[in-house]
Amino acid sequence: MGWLWFLIIGAIAGWLAGKITRGAGFGLLGDMIVGVIGALLGGFLFGLMGLASFSLLGSLITATVGAIIFLYLVRVLKRI
């Protein structure tokens, strides 16, 4: 059941990050991929700062922030 929540939060976080950074989502699968990578990246970065989330909302915020950072890094690397 944990993986299902991870994928649902990833899809929502990817959609939110797409809306925030470019005004549209990436489709269900694209949103899920961006969100899952964002969740991993956000969890890593928040862990480095000594922050942890223990709630559904905290996980969503962590994944969304990570997804926004991931999309920013992808855009920077595409320019190179």
In terms of quaternary structure, what is this? single chain
Instruction: Tell me the helix content.
Output: over 70%
The helix/strand series, from N terminus to C terminus, equals HHH
What characterizes the major β-sheet? none
Low-confidence stretches: none
Q: Name the average pLDDT.
A: 92
Number of helices: 3
Number of strands: 0
Please indicate the count of domains.
1
The secondary structure category is: mainly alpha
Report the span from N to C terminus.
40 Å
Strand proportion, as a percent range, falls in: under 5%
Question: What's the Cα radius of gyration?
Answer: 12 Å
Q: Can you describe what's shown?
A:
This protein is mainly α. The protein has one domain (2-79). 82% of the residues lie in helices and 0% in strands. It contains 3 helices and no strands. It has helices at residues 2-22, 28-48, 56-79. α1 (2-22) crosses α2 (28-48) and α1 packs across α3 (56-79). It is globular, with a radius of gyration of 12 Å.
